[in-house]
Design brief:
Elements lengths: L7 E5 L4 H12 L3 E6 L2 H15 L3 E5 L5 H13 L3 E6 L14 H29 L3 E5 L12 H21 L5 E5 L8 H4 L15 H13 L4 E2 L6 H14 L17
Helix pairs in contact: 1-2, 1-7, 3-4, 4-5
Bound molecules: NADPH dihydro-nicotinamide-adenine-dinucleotide phosphate and the ligand N[C@@H](C=O)C(=O)O.
Length: about 270
């Protein structure tokens, strides 16, 4: 049994898609792993293969992160296990359809997983990694954080939340030696489409990225020290200009008097 010098990566949603691919890549990079999701069999199979192929330690923590008791156990492990050096907050679900036709139970489940569980795990990691002045947190958002009108309202809003949370976390934790990265994938070939009732075949093929390419690009962005990584974006300057436009708004977003055009005369 190894005890990796890279430490242990805790990956949520590791039983399929992006999370399973992160697990494979991180095992190859020499991380020990804690794999979190609900499907015990898939996690066990992946754990066995990764331990055999890479000689790292892989442990399965079966958890439904929308259940308080399960989430509390993962938080506890994150708090207590000083070997954990990387949290990949990846577990997420999507929805299909308009807000007017949304099923309240599905909306609640999405918010509990995509927002609440991610926030609580981020908070524990922020405290633990911050105290040790090392570690990294990767939050999987989505490009729909930037183009919400293109997709389901609740899902897009949840991903805008993840982006916003990550940016503040980086400003709080960066000075303490803890890295935070938000990853914004575009359409990626995983089970999320089928699971949320969307026919992948209806999507333009030139928009779909293979999951291995997506995760490799996200890890390249991580290695380059990016706070926000958009795997599809050809020109990094486009994001820099977006950030620049936001910075330009900054000094004018809070003044003692309304802007001239809103002053009622007469
Ligand atoms: N694929 C895409 O086009 C894009 C995906 N993303 C994001 O990437 C992330 C991963 O999604 P992706 O790999 O595509 O989709 P998948 O459906 O393949 O993976 C989702 C993962 O989350 C786990 N999960 C779902 N519900 C729960 C739960 N209640 N508790 C714990 N784990 C749960 C699933 O495992 P199990 O069922 O075993 O619990 C699975 O491992 C998500 O956050 C998604 O929003 C972002 C942009 C684009
Ligand atoms: N995969 C989408 C949702 O299912 C997205 O985030 O683009």
């Amino acid at each position: 049994m190894s005890k990796s010098i890279k430490g242990t990566a805790l990956v949520t949603g590791a039983s399929s898609g992006i999370g399973a691919t992160y697990a494979k890549r991180l095992a190859r990079r020499g991380y020990d792993l804690l794999l979190v999701a609900r499907d015990q069999q898939r996690l066990d199979d992946l754990a066995k293969a990764l331990a055999q192929e890479n000689g790292v330690r892989v442990e399965v923590l079966r958890a439904d992160l929308t259940r308080e008791a399960d989430l509390a156990l993962i938080e506890q492990r994150l708090r207590d296990d000083e070997a954990i050096s990387l949290l990949v907050n990846n577990a997420g679900i999507a929805l299909n359809g308009t807000l007017a036709e949304a099923d309240p139970a599905k909306v609640g489940a999405l918010i509990n997983l995509n927002i609440l569980a991610l926030t609580r795990l981020s908070s524990v990691a922020a405290a633990s990694f911050g105290a040790r002045e090392q570690g990294a947190i990767v939050n999987v958002a989505s490009v729909v954080a930037l183009i919400p009108e293109m997709f389901n309202a609740v899902y897009s809003a949840s991903k805008a939340y993840v982006l916003s949370l990550s940016q503040t976390m980086q400003s709080e934790l960066g000075p303490r030696g803890v890295r935070v990265q938000a990853v914004l994938p575009g359409v990626t070939r995983t089970e999320i489409w089928e699971r949320s009732g969307i026919d992948e075949a209806s999507l333009p093929v030139e928009m779909i990225m293979e999951v291995g390419d997506m995760v490799d690009a996200a890890l390249a962005g991580f290695d380059q020290g990016e706070v926000v990584t958009i795997p599809s974006l050809p020109d990094a300057d486009d994001w820099a200009r977006f950030v620049g436009a936001r910075a330009k708004l900054g000094p004018n977003l809070s003044h003692s008097r309304p802007a001239e055009r809103y002053r009622i005369t007469g």
